[in-house]
Amino acid sequence: MRPDRTRHAANIAVRALRVPASWTHRQAAREDLSAIVEIYNATIPSRLVTADLEPVSIESRVAWFEQHEPGFRPLWVSSHEERIAGWLSFSTFYGRPAYDKTAELSVYIDEAFRNRGLGSYFLQQAIAHAPAIGVDRLIGFVFGHNRPSLDLFAKFGFARWGELPGVTLLDDVERDVIILGRQVLP
Ligand SMILES: CC(C)(COP(=O)(O)OP(=O)(O)OC[C@H]1O[C@@H](n2cnc3c(N)ncnc32)[C@H](O)[C@@H]1OP(=O)(O)O)[C@@H](O)C(=O)NCCC(=O)NCCS
Angle at CA 35, nearest 5°, toward 34 and 41? Predict the structure, then answer.
């Protein structure tokens, strides 16, 4: 069941922003990092998305940003009227070369632009692009209580490949991490 009030509020905000009918994306530039971090930090208080408990600084994400070389592990942004609406990253899974054919996806949409198909657009594009960067397995690590994200990934054919029960403690509540995955055919 969707939180209708959230969706309703988001819809009003987005209508005011005149969201485009179709989305586009590009590789992120260094100037986008502050917006990328801002969108990420906005999700922290919800305790639904990330195990970070306090906002992260832009400086602390520079190394992460620089790991996202477009031909290997892209970092994409989508913008509307010069405002970054969301981002998607391919990240290296586990860090050893034999895992290079597997990449971890993260997708974060600014609250004002949610429920307008941008998360879907990003996943669709990521699945289509994976073979071009030598990736044939995509995975996502999602909290077991993050319904919007579990539903989004399920919609694009991701299955439950694993479960890490109670591995995080968020405001004194133990939470599970679900490992979602799907194969990608060229
Ligand atoms: C999860 C998230 C990326 C979805 O992005 P979005 O642009 O709002 O998604 P879309 O509009 O494309 O919706 C796609 C699907 O996501 C799911 N979804 C989106 N919002 C949902 C909600 N509130 N409740 C349940 N499912 C939801 C649905 O399956 C939906 O498909 P449908 O519209 O056919 O029902 C977005 O909510 C977000 O940025 N959340 C915070 C970050 C996060 O959790 N990232 C995932 C971990 S990496």
Answer: 90
